[in-house]
Amino acid sequence: MSVPQRQLIETITQQCERIEERFPKYRKRLLESIAEIVAVERSHMISHTNVVQKIADQCEALGDLLARDAKEK
Amino acid sequence: MKFLAASISNFKLLRNVRMDFATDGQRPLTIVRAENASGKTSALNALRWGLFGVGGLEDPNVRLSPADWPDGSPCEIRVAIDFEHTLYKQMGGETRSTRDRYRLIRTTVERLNGDKFVREPERLSLYKLGRKGADPLDTPEARLSEMLPSEMKDIFFTDGDKAMNFISSELTRTTRRDQVKEAIKSLLGVGLLEDAAKHVKQVQSKLTRDAGSLSGSNESKTVAGNLEQAKAKLQDVKQQRSDLVKQIDTLSVQLDAAERALEAALQMGKYEELVQRRTAAKTAFERAEKMEEEFKVEHQNLLGDEALSWTLLRRELARGVERLNELQLKGVIPRAAVPVLRDRLELNRCICGASLEPGTQARSNVEALIEAQRAVDSERQTLTRLLHMAQSHTPEESDPASDWVTRFKRLELKRLQALKMREAAEGELRYCEEKLKEIDQADIQSKRAHRDALRSSIHDKEDRRRDLEVDEREWTAKIAELEQRFEELTRTDQKLKAVRAKLLATKDVLTVLEASLEELQNVYLKKVSDRMSELFLEMVGADPEQGSIFQRASISPEYEILVHTAQGRTLNPDHEVNGASQRALTFAFIWALTEVSGVAAPRVIDTPLGMMAGAVKRRVLEIISRPDKGAQDSEKQVVLFLTRSEIAQADDILDDRAGKVITFTNTDHYPTDLVNDPRSSTPQILTCDCTHRQVCGICQRKYDAEYGLVLRGPIAAVTSHAS
User: Fold this and answer.
1) How far is the C-alpha of B448 from the C-alpha of B611, rounded, in Å?
2) Contact (CB, 8 A) for B258 and B451
3) Which of residues 67-96 of B touch A (CB under 8 A)?
4) Distance, CA of B224 to CA of B231 (rounded, Å)
């Protein structure tokens, strides 16, 4: 893994830590969603995909978790 | 990634060329020795095309096949590269690496039709080379992209001349900054993050619209709609401002050129200065003329002055007066002066005071005397008159200062001075008028008008830019207001709870992406800047602690490459740094990028040492070929395309560091530059195994004696066939 890739992951992880923990392990889920989004973008660079929809799916899934947590509270 | 070998077919003049690369980390240099127009740039482009396809070329629309390929006949262009790649994986907390060998083969077919051509879609194959042979791999583009992202192509495959664009004043400031920014972004692969942020914003917009349409509240719908419009408007304003900045930059470059052109036109005759000189000369001329005229009149008056007569006749007149006095003494001339006597009679009083009233004896005596005088003959009367005149009119001996001769001489001097002044002024006037005639007034006016128009245009655009900045701030504030309002409206709307959660999650994703982007760019900007400075100072041999002029180099937060002096001044690299240092600076920047990237890939540079000579050239070569410390099996690999003159005076470094040398020779250079006839029916690049100190029957050139090259054998090993 190149330095920039490691740095990219480290930086994203650090920035996630600055987001409010809206529910237990929210930051971890946020990081996972962003990692998926980055992977989607990488694939899109090689062969065109419906990237916006795939990213929307990730954001909405995270949002659903957030909404479920709020409902449970 | 480390190159092992490459074979190139029908890529420009590289009809059938094979290259082997140095793989020893202690001797990491591969040298391709080639003179101008001998395939260096074609080889660089062939490697780029092999790895990245047409996207790797500067101009994807340029023909790849040889120029003399017959029309209509298909030309298969093929590049095959054998390489090693090391893959690192995290396993159980450890980093483990595996190294494998691969072969990529990229092909296409072109058909020519005069100046036009048709190219078939490229085909890429990727094989993993093992003991059992070559295993084809699927998704070759994706795999290659993982090994060496295309964003890094300009960093690892560099044209030494084009690298100067990072500091060239021929480009606008915005373009130079953008290039530096793009180079840094490319090594980070942050283009990916930017795209991700852009796509997340699109998701955000869609969710906002959904919220608007789901909401039972008209106000929510309206606010959602307004919010989208405001965001679109803000984007538009930002784009307009960005376009304006580029336009202003372009116009600024044009204004610089216009001002230089105007200055040159004015300097040609120093127009303003000449006009002033002409005016002064004219005034001096008129003044001198006036003085001459005055002195002429004074001269005329001097010649008519009574004093001239006295000056010329003084001696004769003195003798005359003396004679008259003798006559008076002898009594020949009456002592009494008749007019004086008559005056006394009128006054009725003598000079002695005696009364001369009528009837007095004294009066009678005086009348008798007058009568007696009347009896004197006319000559004596004349003599008497002369005596009186001489006594009353003869001037005293004049003082030298007012002597006529002195006055005359003084005047003559003044006239001469006035004449010289007039002549000098006349000469100056003539000179100025001739020079002014040479200046093309119309050209100056035209250049001045052009400059003024550019200034005015820049001024207008600056005003517009400021207006757009205000608009941007206003729209940003408006968006913040609308978002807050939307938040308030939707918070209480139960139907929107799910959408709100999605919007919040999306906002968090966007915040992380944007903050990461900014931090990475800042972190890496500093890393590249610091490393560039170290390399630059080493390349130019500057030691700040020893008081050298160059203190450091840096990349500003605005992505401008700058050089700083010991006195704290900032130098513009394009204007204020010499050619060799400019080259070293761009080199240091690119090398810093490759080092900071941490990507293990061959660094391929075409003509890296142009404009460098002597110590700078040697230091640059020494630095870029320096083996990695302590690594016998290092990943470092450097491929340099060099001419003989670039190699000259650095041979010893290549002796030590070059693991492979190959020479390219263009058959078309016979008989102009090549000694021997290559006997090739078509122009092409031939290769031979000559080192940088050798020549052979294929590559020997007419001026090789200048470089002290040794002829190796009558029949050289040929690794390419002349057809």
Assistant:
1) 36
2) yes
3) 88, 90
4) 11
Residue-level pLDDT at B395: 63
Q: Which residues of B170-205 are buried (b: 16+ CB within 10 A; e: fewer)?
A: ebbbbbbbbbbbebbbbbbbbbbbebbbebbbebbb
CB atoms within 10 A of CB B709: 23
Q: Residue B358: is the preceding peptide bond cis (ω within 30°)?
A: no
Which residues touch A6 (CB under 8 Å, ≥6 apart)? Answer: none
AA identity, residue B542: A
Per-residue confidence band for B229, with pLDDT thresholds at 50, 70 and 90: very high
Radius of gyration of chain B (CA): 51
The pTM (predicted TM-score) of the whole model is 0.64
Residue whose pair of structure tokens reads 């001369």 in the numeric block: B356
Q: What is the DSSP letter of B72?
A: T
A24 touches chain B (CB under 8 A): no
Q: Check if A4 contacts B (Cβ < 8 Å).
A: yes
Kindly report the backbone phi and psi dihedral angles of residue B96, in degrees, each rounded to the nearest multiple of 5, phi listed first: -120, 145
Out of A5, A16, A60, whose CB is closest to B512?
A16
Query: Distance from first CA to last CA of chain A, Å, rounded?
Result: 41
Inter-helix orientation angle A51-72/B497-540, to 10°? 120
Q: CA–CA separation, B552 vs B697, rounded Å?
A: 48
> DSSP string spanning B540-595?
HT--GGGT-SEEEEEE-TT--EEEEETTS-EE-HHHHS-HHHHHHHHHHHHHHHHH
Predicted pLDDT at B632: 42
pLDDT of residue B128: 94
Residues of chain B with Cβ-Cβ distance to A62 below 8 Å are 502, 505-506, 508-509
Tell me the Ramachandran region of residue B38: left when phi exceeds 0, alpha when psi lies from -120 to 50, beta otherwise: alpha
Which residue in the set B141, B188, B199 is minimally distant from A46, CB to CB? B141
Q: What is the pLDDT of residue B717?
A: 40
Minimum CA–CA partner of A5 in chain B: B188
**If you measure CA to CA, which chain B residue comes closest to A55?**
B200
The shortest CB-CB distance from A2 to any of B141, B512, B597 is to B597
Write out pLDDT tens, residues A10-47.
889 999 999 999 989 999 999 999 999 988 888 787 66
Distance separating alpha carbons of residues B252 and B264, to the nearest angstrom:
18
- Could you give the maximum distance between any two Cα atoms of chain B, in Å? 178
Instruction: Tell whether B62 lies on the interface with A, counting CB pairs under 8 A.
Output: no
Question: DSSP letters along B2-56, please?
Answer: EEEEEEEEEETTEEEEEEE----TTS-EEEEE--TTSSHHHHHHHHHHHHHGGGG
Q: What are the residues whose beta carbons fall under 8 Å from the beta carbon of A21, sequence distance 6 or more?
A: A27
And the tokens for B166? 């990072």
CA distance linking residue B495 with residue B500, whole number of Å: 9
Q: ipTM of this predicted complex?
A: 0.93
Burial of A57 (0-12, 13-18, 19+ CB in 10 A): middle
Q: How far is CA B9 from CA B12, B43, B109, in A?
A: 9, 11, 11
Distance CA B66, CA B683 (A): 9
Is A2 within 8 Å of B516 when comparing Cβ atoms?
no
Give me the numbers of helices (H) and strands (E) for chain A, helices first please: 3, 0
